[in-house]
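Hi U.,

Before I forget, here's the chain from the pilot set. I'm dumping it here mostly so it's searchable later in email.
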Amino acid sequence: MSSDISLIPAQPQDYDDLSMFLSFEYFVHRHLDWRPSLDWLGKQPFWIAKVKDEIIGCFAAVPEPERYAWVRLFACSALYSRTAMWQEFFQRCLQQFGQKVETVGALGVENWFIKLLDSSNFTVSQKIIVLEWNKGEIAPISLSDSFHLRKMKPSDFEGVFSLDQKCFSPAWQLSLTSMENAFKQAGYATIIETNQQIVGYQITTESLSSAHLARIAVDPDLQGKNLGKSILNDLLLFYTHSGIHRFTVNTQNDNFKSQALYHQAGFSETNESYPVYEYKIK
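Structure:
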């Protein structure tokens, strides 16, 4: 990379300049996150590349949870080499991680970004597939009287967070802060509890004409008791009564239990999918 380019850690005071840079550049990868990319300012690794005082690139891969880091942001000016910029940022990132991070993950959303990942020893670990529901009939689901389904409240966050940690692998776990952000963006969020313990939850976002089931989890020790089906049934009834009849949900291509749940509820797979890339740090 050219000697007139300097790489420096990004700081919160860089927000306005970064926001302006990102709004005009084409080669921008943003992770599909509950937090806007620039919300990670002040945490590391978050780097910017400058020529004199002008930003020409940026990179963020803040680990959350501690052992797993998603590439949350990468952007490069069209006037400079994306490959050289990426390699320089990524090597700085690996040095900064040291022994603290085991895996770096990245979603292959853009073709140009996928080419960078392919050239950097990232490998595809799985795919995110998108399913859609637009059928009118909703089958009734029987839920035991010992379980209670209700709307989620802020006081539920710690219980939902604990359940989330139990249900998901590190790559897909949410921090408590991300959980709170997800709740703030939700159109409809519910939990199932028994004996004052949260054993299932869902968070759904919405637009004018559709809804997206962004997060759902059921205690693995209580699967087979119609908890997931009840959560989905309640969700579909809530939105169809509100005039929304199109729903989407994402899941992993190797998560056959979740796929079976969605298929039974009337969801069908679309042609939309995104590869999940991982880089294992030795």
